[in-house]
């Protein structure tokens, strides 16, 4: 028999029982890896590597992404990155973000913060609270920061 345990479950199990119940088999302990769908508007390679080093698995989409395609890829979070975006594409990206609101956590950083807030406003989201440098609308699963400081990526990923 084979068991798979998450690192979180490891704290709650009786190891003697697990070991005795898998005689002749084995158990696997899986680390927590956050799956992130990144809508990349120009995020620096270093920031992507920082996320990988924070135990994130990334699927990176460009600004022309399809909401259906994004939804088919397993993810815990959608991150709308910082960068630049052609002004004529902004309404299209905002509409796509609006379609994702409330379904998964959405993180907006830099330009992504502005687009997430615009999509939220169009969707009728009015309640935001400030926690340090992070703006949060918990009931809508929205988290935003401006990325003016390097450690803000780490700060926002604490909400993953």
Automatic annotation (TrEMBL):
Superkingdom, natural source: Bacteria
InterPro entries the record matches: Class_I_gatase-like
Name of this protein: Uncharacterized protein
């Amino acid at each position: 028999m084979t068991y798979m345990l998450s690192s979180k479950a490891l704290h709650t199990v009786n190891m003697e029982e697990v070991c005795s119940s898998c005689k002749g088999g084995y158990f696997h302990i899986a680390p927590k890896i956050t799956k992130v769908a990144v809508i990349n508007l120009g995020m620096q390679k270093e920031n992507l590597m920082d996320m990988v080093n924070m135990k994130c698995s990334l699927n990176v989409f460009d600004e022309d992404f399809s909401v259906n395609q994004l939804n088919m890829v397993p993810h815990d979070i959608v991150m709308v990155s910082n960068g630049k975006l052609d002004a004529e594409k902004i309404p299209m990206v905002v509409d796509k973000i609006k379609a994702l609101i409330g379904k998964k956590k959405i993180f907006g950083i830099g330009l992504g913060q502005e687009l997430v807030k615009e999509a939220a406003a169009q969707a009728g989201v009015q309640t935001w609270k400030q926690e340090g440098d992070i703006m949060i609308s918990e009931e809508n699963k929205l988290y935003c920061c401006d990325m003016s400081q390097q450690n803000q990526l780490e700060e926002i990923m604490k909400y993953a």
